Amino acid sequence: MTPGLALDFTQASRARVYNFFLGGKSWTEVDRETAQAVIRTSPDAPAVARENFKFAGRAAAWAVAEFGIRQVFDIGVGIVDDVPLDSVETCVHHVNPDAMVLAFDHDEVVLTHARALRPGYGAGFGGVLRGDVTDLDTIFDNPGLRHPDLAGRIDLSRPAVVVLAAVLHFVDDPAAVMAGLRERLAPGSVVVLSHATSSHIGEDRVGGMTAAYERGSSSIIFREEEAIAALADGWDLLPPGLTDVQLWSPDGTYQQEVYETVRVVGMAAVLPQAPGSEEVPHAALAS
User: Fold this and answer.
1) Any bridge partners for residue 197, and if so which?
2) Which residues of 157-235 form beta strands (DSSP E)?
3) pLDDT-above-90 percentage for the chain
4) Which residues contact 137 (CB under 8 A, 6 or more apart)?
5) Which of 106-110, 148-152, 280-284 has the lowest mean pLDDT?
6) What is the predicted pLDDT for the residue at 118?
7) What is the DSSP string of 253-285?
8) Could you report the per-residue pLDDT of 216-256, keeping only the tens digit for each?
C-alpha cells in the first residue's frame, strides 16, 4: 500500500473481525456485521476465538520454557493490543522476560494500526514487522531483523518458536508453508499452529461461516483433522498431539468446554535434527 493511501473500510477485515471476537475495540460496523453473520451460523465463534488466542500464548510460553528458546516469531499477529487477554508476548515474558518476541503481518490494516500506536515502527522495529506467511523470505530476510535494537537478540542459526495461530486456514497451500519453515529454521525450533476444522461440524455451519468470511477481504478454508495433522509431516509432534485448542496442554491440566458449532484444533511440533547429525539436548538450546 502506498503511504498515505486511505484504507478501504467498506469491506470487513479478518484482523478486525478477529479483534471483535476477542473483545477488542479496533473494529468497524462492517466488521461487526461480518462477525455477527459468523455468530448466527456458529454462536460459539467468539468463545472459540478466545480459547485459540489463549492456546497460542500458552503453547508458545511452554515451548520457550521447555526448550530454552529465546526468540519467538508471532506470524499473522493481527490487532491484539486492546484485547483483554494475555498476548503471546505477555505469556512468553511471564516465563522468560529476556525472550525476544517479534510480530509479523502482511495485512495493511494491522500494519497501519501498529504504526499509529508506535510511530517508531517505520524504522523497522518496535511494532509489527511486514511479513507474509506465504512468502517466508519477507519474514526471515526482513530488514527489521537487522535493526540495531535487535543486535545479538535474533539469531536465525539457533532455534526459534514460530506461532501460526488461526493463520493457515487462510492459506491455499499450508503444506508449502510448513516445508518452507523446515528449510529456514534451525533444528530444535518449535512451531505452534491452530486451524479451523470441518471435522464433526455440520456442513451447513461450515458453509455459513465460509460465506460470511467471503463478504470480507479474506476467504477461510476449513480442513479435516487428518489434513491438519498431516501438516506436521517432517516434524516431531509434541504431546498432546492435535486436539481442540481448549484441551491443549502438555500435562493435560488445561481442560475447557468443547463447543459444538465451531472447532479450532491446535498442535505444537519440534523440528528434528537432520539424519546422521548429533542431537542437541534441550539444555544446550538455552546456552
Assistant:
1) 223, 263
2) 161-164, 190-197
3) 75
4) none
5) 280-284
6) 64
7) ----PPPSS-EEEEEEEEPPPPTTSPPPPHHHH
8) 767 899 999 999 999 999 999 999 999 999 999 999 999 99
Mean pLDDT of all residues in the chain?
89
Please tell me the distance from the alpha carbon of residue 140 to that of residue 189, in angstroms, as a whole number: 14
At position 182, the amino acid (one-letter code) is: R
- In angstroms and rounded to an integer, the radius of gyration of the C-alpha atoms of the chain is 18
Which pairs with CB-CB distance under 8 Å and at least 24 residues apart come from 20-24?
Answer: 21/45, 21/46, 21/49, 21/50, 22/46, 22/49, 22/50, 22/53, 22/80, 22/83, 22/84, 22/85, 23/50, 23/83, 23/84, 23/85, 24/79, 24/80, 24/82, 24/83, 24/84
- Tell me how crowded residue 173 is: count the other CB atoms within 10 A of its CB: 10
The CATH architecture of the domain made up of 14-273 is 3-Layer(aba) Sandwich (3.40)
What nine digits make up the cell of 167? Answer: 493463520
C-alpha cell at position 204? 451447513
Mean pLDDT of 36-40: 95
- β-pair partners for 128: 103
Find, among 186, 271, 197, the residue nearest to 236 by Cα.
271
| All structural domains of the chain with their residue ranges | 14-273
> Which DSSP letter does residue 6 get?
P
Mean pLDDT of 66-95: 95
Return the pLDDT at 248: 98
CB 165, CB 194: distance < 8 Å? yes
Q: What is the pLDDT of residue 117?
A: 74
